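Quarterly update from the structural biology core.
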Amino acid sequence: MTDCGRSVASGHIPGTGLGMSIVKEIVEIMGGTVDLNSAPGEGTTVTLSLPAVDKAPAPAPGNGPAPGPAGAERPGELPA
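Predicted structure, tokenized:
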């Protein structure tokens, strides 16, 4: 995806046309992808795919760090 500004006149809608370029950059930094499918007269479908991330549970107050994922040797370490 390359930013090339707006391809059609947008009337009175302000902006620079950079929105999807910025979205693509952020999604790729997060390890995901952006797919666009467009058909004249039908519209455009934008699909964002991001990898799932398991979040370790927060430690109970005063109980130390949360345990790491199964197979991790130390709390907070990812399994090999």
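The first strand starts at residue 33 and ends at 39.
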